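New to this. Explain these tokens.
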Amino acid sequence: MKDFAKSDPWMVFKIMGEFVDGFETMKDIGPAVSVFGGARFPEGHPTYELGREIGARLAKGGYAVITGGGPGVMESVCRGAKDAGGTAVGLNILLPNESKCNNWATVKIDFDYFFARKVMFMRYAQGFVVLPGGFGTLDELFEALTLIQTRKTTDYPVVLVGKAFWAPLCAWIETTLVAEQTITKADLKRFTVVDSAEEAVAVLKATHEAAHASAVAQRGARQRLPSLRRSAPRQLVRLRRNA
């Protein structure tokens, strides 16, 4: 008889458990930004210190940070946010070489499945900041861009930090993907490339403030619409009388 603990139905229960745990833990996290970056940058490396500054600036700006929970950039962002008094979420993936969440995360969730973890990155973020990294970082970057492009999530800002690192990839996207028409030129506007923590947070704040102003204006227009509808018949009566 097949061991149920190793069967596909049991895997479904494990997956459900990860989603339930993630949803319950993340539902009250508040405004948040997911920050992606490589695990191999040690303390003192410019990219590590950049992540630390970004975490601090985001926390001071009123955002929680959501990271992968591991070392390198993930640790530095959590560290910066925690030191600044903010919330640092670590979505830790259980891997042979990276099985323990860093000590700076104030909220910790463990995952066996990358796809369940990725849902938490995307569902609870109002923006994405991407520092230099490897395959995992690129996977998370293009996941965010794909969901935005296909309108499966809100058009939140995607900010790449480090112009020298990202320049070759951006050039390839423009000269190959756009040239081959696998994406449109308008898709190039779905991300912004900056060089500093200050610029990265400024892009997020400006985008969110513009979206808030637009939402307020739309709400005001909807509230004015009933009064305009009520006054329209009276205006028509006056027009007829004056005709």
